[in-house]
Each structure stands twice: as structure tokens, then as C-alpha cells.
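Usage example:
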Amino acid sequence: MEEGSRKSSDGLYRVLEFYSGIGGMRYSIMRAGMSATMVEAFDINDKANDVYEHNFGHRPYQGNIQNLTAADLDRYEADVWLLCPPCQPYTRQGLQKDSGDARASSFLRILELMQHMLQPPLMFFVENVVGFEISDTHKQMIEILVKTGFVAQEFILNPLQFGVPYSRPRYFCLAKRKPLSFQNPRFNNQLLWSPTPILGSDDGLMDENVVQSCEPIENFLEVEPSSNQSESADLDLFHTSRVPGMVCTTLETKVEENGCGTGSLSQYIVPLGLIERWGSAMDIVYPDSKRCCCFTKSYYRYVKGTGSLLATVQPKKKGKFTPLKDQGLRYFTPREVANLHSFPEIFQFPQHIGLKQRYALLGNSLSVAVVAPLLRYLFVEPL
Ligand code: SAH
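Running the assembly step on the lines above writes:
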């Protein structure tokens, strides 16, 4: 095989998805409109694999990535590696043990193995939290990429920069093995905070206008609160209405369809006790807001710093301030979190995955609106 040529006979890139979770990377490949052969996905979490299998009809390999060998990896003859290694070693909330954290070791191990492969991949893509770029693991990753003949471009990007009213800044490493090269080689070995190089200069939103140019949150809601909200807001919360660009049924129907099991609407209403205790620490957004906070895997279990809550009653009516407890506060539903992650409508959870698990799996996932254009940029070869 020639250096830099594709491995499959049909000319499609052969892709491996490491730490596949519920398939955010695979949806990004689909959204990017790239024809690729998804050769294998790897994840140790059986619930994540249930969701992946339910949607893609293929169950990821459920072993520990740590135990793969260079020969195993060579056997897949993959052109592209997509990786979302666990982020806890690098998060602010975590203990920041970095490469000393056991959860970093499987990633370091396969990076190590890449050097011993007969045919390392041609392209490499990593997603992680902000903070990864200053870690030891990052340093080791870049050293190995350079030794193995890769050139890298790095980004920290946010869905807000792509018109989605959702703040979830993340680190991305894109790397191509020589003689392959990037469309914009002048960004080699740089860390960029702007999507301009990947979108082309005119498409990129200027950073200062970013939030203003986002769609309102209501476009991402399953259902809109009733337009004549009254004091009995929590009864009005789930009335059916048309949301532009989305198929709306009543939430009741949705809950049944998605198999939450309980069929109860009350599970999304924020209990009064929580509002009284934590109200001042809550991030509250409205249907016309142009941004909300990152949903983490602890959304719905903890209130502080885990994601925004939706107020369905405007805070001020006829000049009168509406107290927080009367603002009809509710959690975003899992479907709405999936919408803010730009997952397609066909994405579904199997019935047996409980509500907390759904939030946990979504919280670990990624923004398809950000990853899809990055992958397109990675795959394209300069003319
Ligand atoms: N991007 C994914 C989620 C990545 S979160 C998505 O779109 O859903 C990290 C994932 O890595 C988790 O699902 C976790 O189960 C998996 N994981 C962590 N350590 C692993 C290991 N050693 N072997 C296999 N999978 C692992």
C-alpha cells in the first residue's frame, strides 16, 4: 500500500470510534455527509452500548481499550481514529490527577501502541474538555503524533460559534499523517479559538456577534409553554404547540414513545424545596434566551453547575416581578438536551434506559454541530 492512500478497496475511509458512548462521533460523520465505513466502536459501558446498538444496529466492542494490542489495532486496517477519552482527569471538578489518573491510562496506552503499528492511521481526531491542552497527557499525545509523522491543528470551540444557543467549549485535536496535509497548513501546530479556518473566512461567525446570532432556545424545545401563561404555570408547562423545525406532540406522548417508563410529566418540574435552597445558584434561561449552560452527566441529580433550567413564565409581567418559584421552572428533557447537542431526530433511547442514565449519557456526549464541520475539515484533502 502506498503511504497516504486509503486502505479499503471501495475508496471509503475506514473509521474506528474509541470511547463511542451513545455515538456522537458517528452522528457527526453522518451530519458531515461523509461516506465512511464504520469498522468498529469501543466502549466499556453496557448502557451506552445498548443505546448505540438501538440506533445503529451494531453493538460496540465492550472490552477495555486498555487491553488492545498493536496487532489488534492493525487488523482493523483503519484510516481514521476518532477518540473521546474520559475527561475527568482534566476537569476542574475532578482531582486533576492528569496522566496519573487511572482513567487516562487507556488513552495513553493506545497512543503508545500507535507507534508500534505496522500501519498507523492516516487521520486522528480527539475531543476533550478545556484544560486537556495544558495536561501531561496532551504533551505526551503531541510527542507521539510528531514521532509517528503526524501534523496537528488544535481548536477550542463552542456550539455558540455555530449558531446553537448552548455553551459547551471543548478541546479538539485534528491530526493527519504525512504526506497528507490540511487545507490551511498555516494553522499547523497552532491552538485556535475560532472556527474561521474550518468554515472559510466568510462563514465563520465573528466572535463578538456570536451570542446574538444564535437561534433562541425555544427552537430546541420539545414543546413550548402555552402562550397565555397564567399563575398556574406548572399546569401550562407542557401544552402542545408548534416549534419551528421540530415535530411536536404533547410531552405526554413523547414520554410514552421514548419509554421513560413512568409516563409522568411531573418529573421535569423543579421541586419547590430545591428552588428555595438552591435558587440563587441556578442558571435559569427562558424560551427566548440565546444561550444556556453545558449539561453535564450530573444534570437532574445535582443543581449547581450541571446545566440550565428552563423558566416557562417570563420573570416580569405588567411591570411586576414574578418570584422564582412562580416562574414555572423545569428541567430540559433528555430530547431537548439531545437537540442542543444537535443530535438528529431519529436518535432515541431504548425504553429500559432510565431518566438519570439518559442525562448521564448525554452529558458525556458531544456537540454534533461542532464536530461535524471539524471532521469535514479533517477529511478534505487540499487540491
Ligand atoms: N463521545 C461519546 C462519549 C464519550 S465519554 C458520546 O458521544 O457519547 C467516554 C466514554 O469512554 C464513556 O462512554 C466510557 O464508558 C468510555 N470508557 C472509559 N474508559 C474506557 C476504557 N478503558 N475502555 C473502553 N471504554 C472506556
